[in-house]
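Field reference: sequence -> structure
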Amino acid sequence: LGWIFSDPDSGQGEYAYQIIVNTSNSIVSPVFDSGQCFGYNNPTNKCVIDIGVGQFQLNSAITLNYNTPYYWWVKVWDNSAAHKDSTLAQYNSAQDTPIEADDGSPLTFTAYKHEMPDASFIYFPINPSRSEEVRFTDTSKVYLISAPSTPVNCTDALCGWSWSATAGATFKDNDIATSSPTITFNSAGNSTVTLTVTDSDGYSVSYQEVININTQLPKWKEVKPE
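Structure field:
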């Protein structure tokens, strides 16, 4: 959660803050109330502002429920001698960031429907040489709304794939959107292969691996023994 502190009194900074979070549009019986938090050094378990001034890491303070909209409010105090406080300001944004949290309501953000994909792949041969065909196989896992923290294997119905490789690599049949492409590396040295997996809810995660390409295999021919 993020906010911007401003004060009409010259030279005043933020002395303390308070975060309130609820699943209903009310500050009564909230699911989380940080109370008054001082500074940015995590003085209590509820005061978890540790990723920058004006940013609150909510998932370190409470366990968020999947696919659930949340309302939230923030209050601040200045560092004057009187420590004057603001009113509670309610979150109200036309679009939530990241876009996966955007639920179309300006007063709420919605927690992810499930875990993000776990992108991964294997390849053979594991010590490829220049100009040799290398077969890549997706081994990614995704999650479903019905079981948001239980991984399942990618299938054509659940996943979309996008592969890329650094310059000097050629995809056979241009199969960059399949689960198992074949790549020929035309140069020796290191080459980076990247796989982006997108699940059926539009959540995407990328995984990349640096592959060492050996020099080209020697040519040979069969000769008659003497």
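Note: The CA atoms of residues 43 and 192 lie 43 Å apart.
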